[in-house]
Design a protein that fits this description.
The complex is a heterodimer. Chain A is of the alpha+beta class. Chain A is built from 13 helices and 20 strands. In chain A, 29% of the residues lie in helices and 31% in strands. Strand 13 of chain A pairs antiparallel with strand 3 of chain B.
Chain lengths: 498, 249
């Protein structure tokens, strides 16, 4: 039985993608551009623009001259590639072997599939309709070879199905470009007056090779089916999913715990064999009344420790409502990462300690939320509020040393609090100040330490910091915002020293 | 003569045994740490700062809280000298991480957990105290009941992690199952005749200590260690309690 191929050509993949993200662009003229040789060149243009004759390869400035109202967006080739991959993965529902044909096509090896949809016609219609519904303008064709399917999708009528063994007839009226030839060969053919494939398909191969080279012959033979064309099928991402059907519906917390433990054990065993670990996981219960209940967890580090993961899930068990009973449990790891045995040294503790601490932090994050956990690294800024950087990872190490030349207070108020002061002379520390309706007399003082605003981040007057001590020995961090020369500056209390 | 020495040795061993049964002992690594508290060591059972236990700090005012956190940071620097991580649990934290550096603690080795409710802070502290990979756990809260503190003490006894409960503005000073109760107040710094603010000076009051002698000491944090303030006209407010009146908390 001959193989059958379906080719899907996304005519406007790039613009369809943008129109899906920004629905307001649908139907409007816009184009995507990318720099090339120091100028902006059109990479893709929307459907309406193509009808106006604006095609990829033109210079954006020229297009602007023709159509001043056109909107221009930067092209994102990586995302388009990713989108094509995702579409290929989605297409696996139609055929087991799917390959991407960069930049804008999909090849499906549909041998033995269409009868499930009741024949090739309904099959082709179904797949085309679904892509159209998804917002993609596609052209499709089915043939015995990839080459013919490609040619028909690009240059034939839409949704063509070529019967088995009739590729040559189908190719007859198509232009030579339908054979996927390079531009120099096409130019030579144009010069020689070959406008249709039918004009040269019967010429002896020897003569063709002499004139157009080996590559053109290979393409022709591939289209006719005399030469095989290898495909590189898309590998779907492995799914880490475990299922546990129950004989009797489960209604108790103990039952759910047992199910959870079993699922975790089998999943963790798989992780061990593959050297991976779970970052996020979803535990689902399918109830007999048709509802599903689910809880999810996340970890700070990829983990495959069943006991630890169970501990995280255990906190959420009370959220599961079994109602009449749960008949099927599934556990899916939605985010899986490699577990490297030699992780960078975390704070010079032993490896065992690292794991224990990250498990503890996961545990805390599960109960009080990940937002409650903070770690700070130094930043090279003098402005006290921006001198630390908050990090979420437990492994990140400081890039610079903590500064020790200037003493910083042990307590810092979240917002500097305005105070009333008595100052003898400008640039002198205050004699006393009033904070929370209490007058504090200053005995000793250090300063000022002037901290200027970082003009590249923010603008405003500088702060003059003073370290002061009162009669009882309490030490404060005060600052004066602004200078006396301009207008009356304001004083603030910003922190407490030990 | 040798008999006497033998007896002394037996008594010393028995004392150690009793102390370890009471929950005192060396930390998880079995080594005695020197916190640089000098003459204060005599006040502790066994002559060393009790690690692997829970200490309670009470601060009535904001300035006292800052002083207590400074003193705590000084203690943490010794506990974290051999590496390790500290957990700082708090609801309404004012601690400024770079300020810890002055007291010899690397701020990036402290994990801050900022919870909304005190109950959560206690839960986090208990979890932390159960994890023997941590160097210490500090919790800043307002109120805690005796039963809650007992749970923490039980967690500490198996893991040998040192815990610090810092109570700020608490409504009542109720009895807790902690090994000690401290009150730290700031003292004016010693500058002699020089201008400016000197090294941080603290008055450390050990209000309660199980099997020890409470008292008041004055320390100065200088060059990365505690130093006893020597020549000071204002001596301890309260004389140390005589040895006979042992205080059992």
């Amino acid at each position: 039985m001959p193989r059958r191929y379906l080719y899907t050509w996304f005519r406007y993949l790039a613009t369809d993608r943008l129109a899906k993200i920004r629905p307001e662009l649908r139907g409007k003229p816009f184009l995507l551009s990318a720099p090339e040789h120091g100028r902006m060149v059109v990479r893709a243009s929307s459907q309406s623009l193509i009808k106006d004759g604006i095609s990829p390869g033109m210079v954006v400035a020229d297009v602007r001259a023709i159509l001043p109202s056109v909107e221009v967006f930067p092209a994102d080739l990586a995302s388009e590639e990713k989108l094509l991959g995702a579409l290929a993965e989605w297409s696996i529902r139609y055929a087991p072997i799917v390959a991407t044909d960069s930049p804008d096509g999909l090849i499906l090896d549909i041998s033995g599939c269409p009868h499930l949809w009741g024949g090739e016609h309904p099959y082709l219609q179904s797949i085309t309709a679904l892509f159209r519904k998804g917002g993609y303008d596609v052209r499709t064709a089915i043939a015995d070879t990839v080459g013919t399917a490609w040619a028909l999708a690009h240059y034939g009528k839409n949704e063509m199905i070529i019967e088995s063994g009739r590729q040559a007839e189908a190719l007859f009226p198509l232009p030579p470009a339908a054979l996927r030839l390079d531009s120099s060969t096409l130019q030579r053919m144009e010069k020689l007056g070959f406008r249709q494939i039918g004009q040269f398909i019967d010429i002896p191969r020897l003569n063709l090779r002499r004139r157009f080279g080996e590559a053109m012959l290979i393409r022709l033979e591939q289209a006719l089916g005399a030469m095989p064309e290898p495909l590189k099928p898309v590998q779907p991402a492995p799914v880490y999913l475990e299922r546990l059907p129950c004989l009797e519906p489960i209604r108790t917390a103990t039952g759910i715990e047992i199910a959870m433990k079993r699922l975790l054990e089998s999943l963790c065993e798989r992780f061990f064999n593959e050297g991976k670990g779970m970052r996020t996981g979803i535990f689902k219960g399918y109830r007999i009344d048709g509802e599903t209940v689910q809880v999810s967890i996340g970890t700070n580090r990829a983990s495959r420790n069943a006991a630890h993961l169970f501990k995280l899930f255990e906190l959420k068990i009370p959220e599961i409502e079994p109602a009449l009973g749960i008949e099927l449990f599934t556990l899916e790891a939605t985010l899986v990462e490699e577990v490297s045995e030699t992780q960078e040294a975390l704070w010079s503790t032993a490896n065992r300690d690292q794991a224990a601490i990250s498990e503890l932090v996961d545990n805390i994050a599960g109960k009080v939320g990940i937002k409650a956990i903070h770690r700070y690294l130094p930043l090279e800024h003098h402005w006290p509020e921006s001198s630390v950087k908050e990090v979420s990872s437990l492994e990140e190490q400081p890039e610079t040393e903590w500064r020790t030349d200037r003493q910083r207070p042990i307590h810092l108020l979240p917002e500097p609090e305005p105070i009333e002061v008595m100052v003898v002379l400008p640039d002198y520390p205050p004699m006393h100040f009033r904070y929370k309706s209490e007058v504090i007399r200053i005995v000793r003082a250090d300063g000022p330490e002037r901290i200027e605003q970082e003009w590249w981040l923010q603008s405003g007057p500088p702060r003059d910091y003073y370290r002061v001590e009162d009669e009882s020995g309490a030490r404060y961090w005060l600052f004066r915002l602004g200078l006396y020369s301009n207008r009356k500056p304001q004083w603030f209390l910003h922190g407490f020293f030990a | 003569m040798s008999e006497l020495a033998e007896k002394k040795e037996i008594i010393r061993q028995l004392k150690e045994k009793i102390l370890s049964m009471e929950g005192f002992g060396t930390g998880s690594d079995g080594l005695l740490l020197d916190f640089g508290l000098g003459p204060m060591n005599a006040a502790f059972p066994g002559g060393a700062f009790p690690v692997g236990a829970i200490h309670e700090f009470i601060s009535p005012t904001e300035t006292c809280a800052a002083a207590a956190n400074g003193f705590l940071a000084g203690l943490l620097s010794t506990l974290m000298k051999k590496g390790g991580v500290c957990l700082w649990v708090s609801s309404g934290r004012k601690l400024f991480a770079p300020g810890l550096r002055f007291f010899g603690v690397e701020p990036h080795r402290v994990i801050f957990i900022d919870v909304k409710r005190e109950k959560e802070a206690l839960w986090v502290m208990e979890q932390g105290l159960k994890c023997n990979s941590l160097a210490a756990v500090v919790a800043e809260l307002r109120d805690i009941s005796f039963a809650e503190s007992r749970r923490l003490q039980l967690a500490v006894e198996t893991s040998k992690v040192t815990g610090f409960l810092h109570r700020q503005g608490s409504r009542m000073e109720n009895t807790l199952a902690c090994v000690s109760r401290w009150k730290i107040r700031p003292l004016s710094s010693q500058t002699g005749k020089l201008p400016g603010v000197g090294f941080p000076c603290l008055e450390v009051e050990l209000v309660k200590i199980r099997n020890g002698r409470p008292g008041i000491w004055q320390f100065e944090w200088k060059n990365g260690t505690f130093r006893v303030v020597a020549d000071r006209n204002k001596i301890a407010v309260k004389p140390p309690v005589p040895q006979k009146q042992r205080h059992y908390a």
